[in-house]
Records
---
Amino acid sequence: MSKTPIEIDMLVDSALWSGLEADLTRALLAAAAAEGAAGTVCLFLGADEALARLNAEFRGKEGPTNVLSFPAGEGAAPGFLGDIALAAETIAREAAEQGKTIESHAAHMAVHGFLHLLGYDHIVDVDAAVMEDRERVILASLGIADPYAE
């Protein structure tokens, strides 16, 4: 039996995530494989209310956001990559607005969050282009269409 490149500790804190756990696991495993990353990731699947609290506490921003990433800092356990938190209602709403399935949009947000753990960012246009290209490649490996296509 082969060992997967990452271990995923998943905390499901909203019934709205029911049935999506396997899709999100596949997305994170694909991202880790594509990036050659190994270690442990904690994935929190919460409701908007929980993400709004995290967003206020750690980013000083009001309201929920679709995904938050907390890369492991100094002093973290060896191999710990960080935490990713996803907001159920926000992701469901965005998927509907964008004409996507919740499965594909949630997978995209998980991959996006994972790439943040590895140091990718999208504040500067050139960095955003690199990150989006990596997302496209990873999502395509899962059979998910380009999330940035017009």
---
Amino acid sequence: MKHRIFVAIGIPNDLQEEILRWEKLHEKLPVRWLSGKNLHITLVPPWHEEDIKTVAEKLTAVHSAVSPFELAFNEVAYGPDARKPRLIWAGGKTPKELPALKATLEHALEQKPENRLFRLHLTLARFRTETFSSFPVKQLNEKISWRDTAHSFILMESHLAPGGADYEILQEFAL
């Protein structure tokens, strides 16, 4: 059986709670908020895989090559394209360790790197671009100060459903 899996950095409970408090202030926006357990920073985007055990073995070989590093989110905005948004996301300065970890993981997993500059972002909500014209708030550039230390990365499985994806942690790998 093929599984839809990806590699990410999970968001700890204390930061999830801070994010959920922010979302409560914006609950009138017509979006699908990600639940706390589904919040993550994607490092290697989803692909279909049968042999999860081999993937986990490859990730085990990577985890000790990288040390923990700081993540700092300083703004929440519409994205990824301000003219045709489909997300609400938090962003900040990309720490140099993050693209290095992404490249190491892609290489270990034999996954083709994406053709775009990788930047720190955390998806908070999704919506259909065509619904944006009905939003009560068209500009969203809120300053925040959310901090975390990435102590691990996780192998996740994506379960697609009509109401949006739900994510399951398959294994965590300490840095």
